[in-house]
Amino acid sequence: MSDDKNNPMGLFKKYLTNRRIFKNREVLRHSYRPHILPHRKPQIDELASILAPALNNETPSNILIYGKTGTGKTASVRYVGLELENASGVTGTRCRIVHLNCEVIDTQYRVLAQIANCLEDHDEHASDSTRIHIPMTGWPTDQVYMELKKQLENSGGVMVIVLDEIDKLVKKSGDDTLYNLTRINSDLKRAKVSIIGISNDLRFTDFLDPRVLSSLSEEEIVFPPYNAPQLCDILQQRSEIAFVEGALDESVIPLCAALAAQEHGDARRALDLLRVSGELSDRENSDMVTERHVKMAQEKIETDSMVECVSTLPTQSKAVLYAMLILEQMGKRIFTSGEVTMVYREIARILDLDVLTHRRITDLISELNMLGVINTRVVSRGRYGRTKEMWFDAATSKIDEVVSRDPRLSDQRLKEIDINRLRAMFR
């Protein structure tokens, strides 16, 4: 303890002097933007060819980009957008990119205000008297739209608006935002607008008015999942910058790639596995990252994502999940939706929750299955029809711990549920 007091770095000295694993772990994070995007040249070239008319002050087609999480959509769009802005500086045209994350900016007001404020921030020609910063709440939406049009006309040139996770905007706020943005060019004389929508959800277009869809999807680009060899290339490229030479066992990158390829070819998953493997090795003061660290990393990531997923569930979903945990405590490894419903009703009665219908409970069970919290299957019972069976894939202690953190589900009365009486109900 006294050594730590006398040393200015104190407790952290040993962590700063040990550089046996990482040179720069930041390149393994999702926010890092590499200069080269392996295995995305066809998509990047197609995107560039669609946006190229902007360099002649012409309106590029609107684009919808689809692909699962971690397939390089956002990174490719940011790369092409930066190249477009650089090229416009050479050609003397005005091309700007505004990139919005619709998981955060998820209402029409916020989208329009954010675009207008980005224009204002980047317009060096605007005088202080013409600069109007739109507050993120408080104005009528029509006024925000009018101000956006004014800012666009004052700036001139071509504005490319990227709506990342566009499905989140549509599901929360409908398609009014897209309706207005896809028609804004008819109200502009000096400026032109092009929209790029990025989505992980191929079905979100079901929520769109056909007129909006036809305007928005003038061009479509699909980003396929990466396969294991492609993920190896991506990890190899990053690892050369991220790790000290010789810090990776030769089997680590192929294993991370293979595990991520099983998870729909997600490059983010592969990078997370590699980074967490390195961190676990680093904390052990090991000289090398090995397969053992990758297996530990996989378990840690799955547990962490499960905890986050369960902790953010609404109370009714947690109540259904709690019913399953009670059934497992009763020794049932596989249980039916009917059994879950019976236990859930007991929990809802004790907690004074609105009791959901069996149909709604079945919907919540399907959502838990989609999130990977449980596994389900539909089985035939002959003349008794079909029923849904479910089970937990792994140990439930962590799930139980997270569910019990919910103030309502930590109610002491739940501890008094009569397991024997429940068992009798199932006989």
TrEMBL record:
UniProt domain Cdc6 C-terminal: residue ranges: 321-403
Domain of life the protein comes from: Archaea
Coiled-coil annotated residue ranges, if any: none
GO molecular function: ATP binding
Positions with a binding annotation for ATP: 71-75, 226, 238
Keyword list, A-Z: ATP-binding, Cell cycle, Cell division, DNA replication, Nucleotide-binding
Pfam families: AAA_16 (PF13191), Cdc6_lid (PF22703), WHD_Cdc6 (PF09079)
GO biological process, one term: DNA replication
Every AAA+ ATPase domain range: 59-227
Task of the protein: Involved in regulation of DNA replication.
Family note: Belongs to the CDC6/cdc18 family.
Entry protein name: ORC1-type DNA replication protein
Organism expressing this protein natively: Methanoculleus taiwanensis
